[in-house]
Amino acid sequence: MERNLPIIIEDKDMPIDSYKEIKNNRGFTNIIFLLSTVSTSIMWLIIIYICR
Question: What is the pTM (predicted TM-score) of this model?
Answer without folding.
Answer: 0.49
